[in-house]
Amino acid sequence: MLKLNTPKIIDGLAKFDGRKKKYVPYPEIYNQSSEVEKLRISILSELQTLWEQLQKEYPGNIRFLKSASNFFELVAPIESLSFEFKPSSQQGFNSLQLYWSSYPSKLHYQVYERLRPLSSVGYQKFHERCNALIARKFKTKKEQKQVGVAVTDFIEFQNQHFMLAKHFYPIIHPPKPTKPNPLTVNQSWIKQGKQLNQVIRAVHDHWYQTKEYSPDEILGWLIFSGIIYGGINEGNMLRAWLAALLNKEYKPFIHQRTFISARFEYAYYGNERSEDGKTLYNTKQIIVDLVSQCWLIRYHQQVSPQKTEQTLCQLSDKTLKNHLKNALKPVLEPFDIKIPTLAKLMYYASYHWEVLDNVDIDQASVTVLRGRQNTSGLKAFNFETLLSQNYKAVKLTYELKDIIELNIHESDDTDTVITNKKKIKVRKSDLIDKLTQDFKLDKELKKKRLSYKPPTLIERIEKRCNQYKDLSERVLLHWILSLLNAKKPPSNQSILKYIKAIGYEWLYFTMAQPIEMWEEEDFETLYEDILEYKAFTRGNTDLGYSAKLFNRMHSFASNKYKFPKVSIEYSQKGRRVRSELISPQAYNAIINQILASVDLLERDMLALIFILAYRTGMRKKEILGLKFNDIEGLSQSQPSLVIRPNRYRSTKTQGSIRRVPVFALLKPDELTFFLNFIQSNIGTNPNRFIFTLSSDRQPLHDHAPLKLFKRVVKDITIKGDPAINHTFHGFRHTAITNLSMVLMGHEHLIASLTDYDEDDVLRIKYGLLGEHIDAQDHWYALAGIMGHLSPQRSFEYYNHVATLMATYELSQANIKLPTQTLNNITGFSNKTLVQNHADIDNNTISLPSIRGLLFRSINQGIRKSPIFIIEKTTAQFISDFTPITTNELFMRYGINTVEQLLCLSDKGISLKEAATILNINFDDAKTLAKRAYKVSNIINTRDKERFIKPDSVERIMLSPLKPQEQSDYRLLTHLRNNGSLLRTQYKQDWQWFMDICCQKISISKAYISFPESRIEDFKRFIGIAKQLLPEKNWLITTDAQLKDTTLNQPEYKGMRYQKNPSVSTLRIGIASREATDLSNSFTSSKNTWKYSPLFRFFVHMMLVMDESLCINESKP
After folding, report:
1. Is a pLDDT exceeding 70 seen at residue 104?
2. Record's Gene3D superfamilies (predicted)?
3. How far is CA 976 from its chain centroid?
4. CA dihedral 546, 550, 551, 556 (to 10 degrees)
5. What one-character-per-residue DSSP string does 83-123 give?
6. Sheet of 280-287: strands edge to edge?
């Protein structure tokens, strides 16, 4: 009888082994397969064995199967049947008929027995056993993903070959590894927590009854107190905490707190690495709790320094356990209470300290103290410097050409590299696809016998070098060539694996970026962003492999392209994060130094870069890539910055596209400074970059802020003070740390470590969180503002006060102990307690009431807690820009807003509609339009309008003639602010100055002409002009004779001068360079000057906006 073989997915790959009773792969096929194919064959064999076992145990309904006619053809593949009828005996005929009717019935039975599906219960069992098999045999995420594909293929094979469509088996999704929730607790949390409370009550009774303690017992109770009351619930941190206390490394802190900087060795995370690179250390700032302070006093009263030194030498995890056990054992055994282990005590301690009276601690901080969230503090020296070091701005003049000059690294590569300022289409992965094709083609060609010699793989890669010209592409291609040309090159398969591991991300993050000008800090930030992207977006767990490859490629680029050398932390054992904070004092000095030392045209722009970096934490590339049309809410004076990709700045992840509420993050005077700068420089084309030089339209080069920052930090550091190695990226660390304190920190920390006051705190909270500022989304809101994919990123890399915030909150706990207990531990008598204003009720003392007594007893010789006074950090220059609040129309609206109102009116839009669009009061709009009409009618002696240019139909225009040069708009901010001060302090001079401008400003060029007979008016005009702008920003034109007789006086020193023999008067106006080329303007010693139209524009707008000025429309 013919044997029936139904199709199986493992046909040709495996066979059934009757002895083992399972399917086993064919050795000759399995051994020649790749690792991925081996994994697939193995899992399919297991699944087929399991499936056939369950078919017998849980048979399903055969009506769910497709028609079996195609399987009969497998047995008897007869194309056509023909029958010839021959008369025969009745018996023979019946026999023949019986044969053809009974044989198919046996076939049907055999087929359906083989194909019988699984019942629903059987398929559920298959699902469960399949998941158990995957979890047991396959541990890595990569293997589980490949197995998941194989399982899906197996089920789809069963559906397509055997099952009716409406009875298809549902696809099994294998278990995926999920990220553990650090906020969850285990099932025994309540039970173990109640047992812990039993232990604490027994301990309190023991403290009440016992007065004498051995040194070992004191150590045990000190450890117990730190765990139960101080929140020191991580083993390494506990050991360092105890060592610092015994070694008297504690220091006084604000509001009678005592803190330590606990430095401990950690295997995979830290903020510093040993010199040999083998050991990581982490440092955290910790506030010592009150109960631990009591036991610390007892320890130093009773234990000698020699004994302490011996204890420190022997300190280890084992000794910690022994000290704790020795203290607890005699207390708990009489009550038949199980002695908790050190690990168990640390795990469940938060059950107690989370709910202490007067403690309000969030769950993220709980996970930090329990050691379930990586975070770092500052190194001890850096933290002390942050609190105490002062800075001072010095009077210097910075040559701008030294700051902005190109700093392109020389390259040994002789080929031309395309400049990154061009618009380069980001191809992302097409180069990787081409390289993959090259490697696969090379492998295939080697297997063939060809009549010609094909190009080698090296020749193909060299051809790619000629096709791809962007520097990031060339770095990758030349690195691949260096691997192929090495003396002992890796296999082609390994090189292709390298390319796929890092090539896509390298091109994605660096394409069209000026990496040839980047410094060490830029590359470190780049690799941090790439590894974060691979971890959170791509789900890569083995970041060390990618980091090592990036390290190898960067080392190659350092030699070939002179890139700065960097150390990628993931490429070594463990991960070192940079811990750095910039103090408010340093920030204040930095802004003052820039505003005092940089040229007037550029100083506001450069200062604003550092203001945004310090307050918002935006990345340098994000700030430099801002355009004016990236600002929302400008007309309502509540601006937000929208971070989105443009040709200069690409966003790394979807989370990088975000809205930054600068109206909430900037302090009021800084916001005014920001609005003034934007309003004065936006001009008519909002699709321009904000942070450009006055003579350029392109954004500043990446290196310019870094170079300026290094110079400024060096200059403001007081001689003799230690030099701090600040980086620009430190602003981001500082902003995230400061905002963490604002959102979740205690008001004492905010007042001492930041320059935010109560109003600032409320404004920031409402700006970031909305109306519900007490909700549970603080950390996610902060991560979103910073463009992080998760709060974990903020904690690991940027928040350097997480432990300090958490332990400070625990120090607020209102812990109450019997006075007898306190006397037994510390020796403080009732008289001493009463003299120190202790809060005693029914022989129970509130420990916070004797905080001062404990503080003085521990910090011997120090009577008062230090006060870290944060000076007002807003620079004086910025403070001067804060508007004076009055009921006047003057400066009620920005210059740009008023200009837009007049422009809309000129376009035929009704004044009411224009006022509504610009959010201007309609009565104010009517006043402004009326004054603008008067200004437009001011004429000269030839009946020509002085301030406007009539249109083709001789219609009176209200809008002013606008400057065209970027440098003109840069001066407008200073004219506006200095004009406001002049108007307030010298109103008569202000009116006279404007009257002269109305009468004398020229039509063709914006200057005022004074004849020699009115030299006194000229001198008065000069005196007022110098209050509006510095001397070097004014240009005087006259002939040589008048210059010699008039301009040799000291009051004209520093002003620009042009000699013109045809000019017999004294002409004065705002100076503007003729040169438009940046390099010429900074390197040429001879510049051609012209009169800037900004002068006419400024006078026009002041006449419109200042109601106190009289406008004389008659001829002069």
Report:
1. no
2. Intergrase catalytic core
3. 36
4. 150
5. -------HHHHHHHHHHHHHHHHHHHHHHHHHHPPBPHHHH
6. 251-253, 257-266, 280-287, 272-273
CATH superfamily of 584-799: Intergrase catalytic core (1.10.443.10)
pLDDT digits (tens, 9 = 90+) for 286-316: 999 999 999 999 999 999 999 999 999 999 9
What was the pLDDT predicted at 661?
95
CB 476 within 8 A of CB 412: no
DSSP string computed for 374-390: ------HHHHHHHHH--
Closest Cα to residue 7, out of 83, 68, 96?
68
**Conformation bin of residue 954: beta by default, left when phi > 0, alpha when psi is -120 to 50:** left
Please give, one letter per residue, the 3-state secondary structure of 150-217. Answer: HHHHHHHHHHHHHECHHHCCCCCCCCCCCCCCCCCCCCCHHHHHHHHHHHHHHHHHHHHHCCCCCHHH
Alpha helices per DSSP H over 911-965: 911-917, 922-936
Point out which residues pair with 282 in neighbouring strands: 264
* Confidence band, pLDDT 50/70/90 cuts, at residue 653: low
DSSP output for 15-63: EEETTTTEEEE-HHHHHTS-HHHHHHHHHHHHHHHHHHHHHHHSB--GG
Q: Return contacts of 953-958, CB within 8 angstroms, 24+ apart.
A: 957/906, 958/902, 958/905, 958/906, 958/929, 958/932, 958/933
d(CA 55, CA 1002): 101
Distance of alpha carbon 63 from alpha carbon 164, whole angstroms: 9
Beta carbons within 10 angstroms of residue 397's beta carbon:
9
Tokens of 636: 């309502």
Using CB atoms within 10 Å of the CB of residue 906, give its burial: 0 to 12 exposed, 13 to 18 middle, 19+ buried. Answer: middle
Among candidates 993, 927, 938, 992, which has minimal Cα distance to 960? 938
Entry pTM: 0.73
C-alpha to C-alpha distance for 739 and 1020, rounded to whole angstroms: 50
Backbone dihedral angles phi then psi of residue 724, each to the nearest 5 degrees:
-105, 130
For the chain, the distance separating the N- and C-terminal CA atoms, rounded to the nearest angstrom, is 125
Tell me the C-alpha distance between 852 and 865, whole Å. 9
Radius of gyration over alpha carbons of the chain, in Å?
40
How many angstroms separate the CA atoms of 369 and 379, rounded? Answer: 18
The per-residue pLDDT for range 830-839, each reduced to its tens digit, is 999 999 999 9
Cα 57 to chain centroid distance, Å, stands at 57
Which residue ranges make up each domain of the chain?
Answer: 14-79+89-167, 189-377+810-814, 410-563, 584-799
Measure CA 150 to chain center. Answer: 39
Query: Residue length, the chain?
Result: 1116
- Partners of 839 in the β-ladder: 846
Under DSSP, the state recorded for 1050 is G
